[in-house]
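R.M. (postdoc): so does anyone remember the format we settled on? I'll just put the structure tokens first.
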């Protein structure tokens, strides 16, 4: 069975960076570039016009930055998922991007194959955070007082005890397989619990579940 290619929009204010990403993506099976933008405003327009599956977003751009562009894209009619490319020292920007609705973020010095894999993961509806920055960023993010851009209107009591256990482990960065091993359940059951949590908490993806685990007090940097 042949699947349609993943439609990708590249957003970066540096033409050389876009050129490098263009070559990388264009040479990869199953990925198709449908547009490029050098500003946040252009990215928002392209997300509507080009109907991408994934927007590969830079943060620091003149005019509208990547955080505001991400917020507008995820809040609008587009079904595109935003994958942020950033640097390790861009912590504050990454917190804003997550709150704005980004489905994940990567550091720019990651291996090119990992970036391509991340595009496919996000396009498939999952979320992804670069392993090298997950703990530091999430812990710092959780300590910040700002509310989420779209807080869940669901009481914590609406989730079951088992779902609470699963949400706690998601918040600690465990994968479905790791959760299954920890709770002595099958990976399929762990995945089903995560799917129900996404629905109950009206979470866009796994990144938001991690955030909610902290904001509900199930996980803290000291645990």
């Amino acid at each position: 069975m042949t699947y349609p290619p993943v439609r990708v929009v590249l957003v970066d204010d540096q033409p050389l960076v876009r050129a490098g990403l263009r070559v990388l993506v264009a040479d990869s099976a199953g990925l198709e570039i449908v547009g490029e933008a050098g500003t946040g405003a252009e990215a928002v327009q392209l997300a509507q016009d080009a109907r991408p599956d994934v927007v590969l977003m830079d943060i620091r751009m003149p005019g509208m930055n990547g955080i505001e562009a991400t917020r507008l894209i995820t809040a609008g009619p587009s079904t595109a998922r935003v994958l942020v490319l950033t640097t390790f020292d861009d912590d504050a920007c990454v917190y804003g991007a997550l709150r704005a609705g980004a489905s994940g973020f990567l550091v720019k010095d990651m291996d090119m194959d990992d970036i391509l894999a991340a595009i496919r993961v996000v396009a498939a509806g999952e979320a992804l955070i670069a392993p090298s920055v997950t703990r530091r960023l999430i812990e710092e993010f959780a300590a910040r007082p700002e509310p989420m851009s779209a807080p869940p209107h669901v009481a914590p009591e609406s989730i079951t005890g088992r779902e609470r256990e699963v949400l706690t482990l998601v918040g600690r960065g465990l994968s479905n397989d790791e959760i299954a091993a920890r709770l002595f359940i099958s990976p399929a059951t762990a995945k089903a619990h995560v799917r129900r949590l996404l629905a109950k908490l009206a979470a866009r993806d796994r990144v938001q579940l991690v955030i909610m685990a902290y904001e509900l007090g199930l996980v803290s940097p000291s645990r």
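R.M.: ...and that's the designed sequence above, right after the tokens. Also worth knowing: Confidence is low (pLDDT under 50) at residues 147-153. The two ends are 45 Å apart (CA to CA).
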